[in-house]
Each structure stands twice: as structure tokens, then as C-alpha cells.
Amino acid sequence: MKLKRIVTPFIALLISFSFSACSDPELDGLMDDYCNCIQKARYDQSNDYDPCIEKMHAIKEKYKNQPRKLQKVYEKTDDCY
Fold it and tell me: Per residue in 12-21, pLDDT tens?
């Protein structure tokens, strides 16, 4: 029983740390900027999608050699729409 009291909080701490270690604030910021661009272009008829396309191209270029981060980019892109 005493071992369970020690192990359970340790496991919870380990799990929470693993989730926070997976986040990338730089990637999140770039994708937020891209999503905001898409939203603005969608609702503003005078605005085109070219700046948004350029942003996405730059993001993909930045993470082209990092498959896990590139996968996150694709997942977050789906959230923009």
C-alpha cells in the first residue's frame, strides 16, 4: 500500500511532463499566425490567400527535415478550417 502511494504520484508527474515536453511554442505560434491569416482571408473579400500560402510554405520549409513536427503542422492545419 505504501509503495502504491509513492508510485502513483510519480506516474502522474511523468505523464504530465511527457505531455508538456511534446509542445512546441514556436510551432504553435507559427500555426496560430497561419490560422489567423486564413480566418482573415476567409471573411475579408478584399484579402487573398497568397500571404497565407507563403506562410505555410515557410512553415513546411522550416520543418521539412523534422517529420514529427511536420505531422503536427498538418494536424494543426486541419484545425484552422
Answer: 555 544 444 5
